[in-house]
Amino acid sequence: MSFLAPFLLWAIPLAILPVIIHLINQHRHRTVKWGAMMFLLDAKRMTKGMARLRQILILAMRVLALLALIFAISRPLASGWVALTAGGAPDTVLVLLDRSASMEQQNLLTGESKRSTSLKKISDLIEKVGKRTRVVLIESVENRPIEIAEADNLNDLPATWPTDATADVAGMMQTALDYITVNGSGRTDVWLASDLRTQDWGPASGRWDSLRAAFASLEGVRFYLLNYPDVAPDNIAVTVENVKRRKIGDQAQLQMDIYLRRHMPVGAEPKPIDVPIEYVINGVRTAGTVKIEGLDLAMQGHTIPIGATTERGWGKISVPADSNPRDNSFYFVFDEAPSQKTVIVSDEAQVIEPIRAAVSSQIDPGRNYVAEVINPSRIAEIPWTETALLLWHTAIPEPGTPDGVQLKQFVESGKTVIFLPTDASPSASGFMGGNWGEWVPESTDAIPVGWWRTESDLLANTQNGDALPVGKLNMFRVRKFVGEEGQPLLKTEPGEPIMTRVPTDTRGAIYFCGTLPSPSYSSLAREGVVFFVMLHRALDQGAKALAKAQQRSAEGGLFAGDETGWKAFEISETSNPDETSLTKGLLAGAFENQPRKQLVAVNRSLDEDSIRKIDSSEIENLFSGLNYREIKDEVGDSSSLASEIWRAFLITMALALIIEAALCFPAKTEKKVVPKKKEAKA
Predict the structure, then answer these.
(1) Cβ atoms 100, 556 nearer than 8 A
(2) Which of 97, 329, 359, 417 sits in a 20 to 30 Å window from 154, CA-based?
(3) Which secondary structure element, helix H or strand E, spans residue 656, and what is its range?
(4) Count of helix runs (H) and strand runs (E) in the chain
(5) Which domains, ranges and CATH numbers included, belong to the chain?
(6) What are the tens digits of pLDDT across the range 285-299?
């Protein structure tokens, strides 16, 4: 329990006044012994115990009434969470807000979302407890400290409005740590509002260990986790992939993969439902109905007829409104397919030829597949702007060198690079977090595959769920990967990674393949299916950066400071009319850069459709040794985090005074039976 006027609690010692007055009254009169009173004293001793008990109760009620009055005027706060605001108002409150698309799940009766509910409760608490407290907002999009003048303005700030972006909880925690350290914030409360989605928290990230150790060294920092883990069972999310324009004779059509996913309570049996679906192509709307038998519906290769003269444009697939409006629509754009160009930097024919044969195969008739070989001595001749996939079979360039700068810019532009091992010495610095280690000692026996990632990336299962025949591969020579955050895609049976992806902050992709497609190194070329699929998936990734029609996630930076060159065909619905001008690149929609004739569809990240969340045991591990409290809340809940309960103390005071008055009434005297005197005998 805490108090809005805690200074009045200094009056608590006044509650003993009734006791002091009683003691003074007892010694106010001088006692004079009088023989005639002996019979009355004997009668008094008979009722002394009951009288003393009544006096004690009267004094107790008077003390209780005074205590209740003092507590009432001190304006006590209470909630369902004991010691929520214990210790009074902090010097600083840091509000860490998750603005990801999943936080827009709504209560259909109130229209409140998880995000808006959390903001109202936190601002209400700050207004009650810490009006003089410094309030700092750290939201998940820009991830920078923003000082707030008035806490009740939190919901009205553009920095707290809905977005279709993802969240990085560890990143916000790091920003909070930096702010506390630099500003010397004193006693600080950190409020984190989140829906506990695993992809936002990243509990396996190594950043949490350093964060936990750094916060443990600070004094006066408390964490309050305002959690919204519930998942709405009536929500349906739609996504669109692989949009292509095809011309058949004198007609044209769009071909795409449409996926519908609905959320169900754990253990619930999904029943078939009919779902209305709307198709929008360049503003023209058509409608239909599909049936979802289970949890998911995959409409692969779905076609929509378009005009033969319609060569480029935008579209949207939508389902009816439900508990989360941010995943009811998915935008796409289409244009002429880009050239699928691959550059192989190598001078070894046994490496070049298998790669050239794989990437030159024309699997899509509407695209042009080109493979160019560049000798390592002629790296400056690489057509960087035209290349989608780069296979680097030479020494890794050092950062700061012309080759290193060009290669980094290539990745940052969204292209793909695959490093192949050579006998050259490892780079002193590596490349963007990855480097070569030593070669695994050679063995006369083939090294079998032990594990590979089947759910995503280059070696994922096919669209119909069949696994690639990766298990048939054998390795003969393997070079180790060195890097702290590499994500293995393929490992040998002894556990050495063969294919590793290096995480980057850009749209580009970096892979390290620890073996070569030549017979003396592996069976990649002989078992050609895996090698073929792997290279074409990497090629498709890089080609997206060359396409005039691109799909991007709503992570900001779409307009790159050049807002005048962009035109919006349509932007997702939002409750804030001015939001589009303030959060460009953070909302789903279809856009065109008119000077460059580039079409871009912005959508929520597909990770936002995952309902996997961390549990209390994982939270306990992440905040081990820190002063934290979990508060599970529900979307649309109107109850306050801390409510005033002075009325309860006034009622207690009134009851105490009523009982005291009843005890003060004089007790009824008992009639005594006096025995008759015996008559004297004559």
Answers:
(1) no
(2) 329
(3) helix 646-664
(4) 12, 31
(5) 2-79+646-664 (no CATH), 92-231+616-641 (3.40.50.410), 236-336+548-609 (2.60.40.10), 340-538 (3.40.50.880)
(6) 999 999 998 888 999
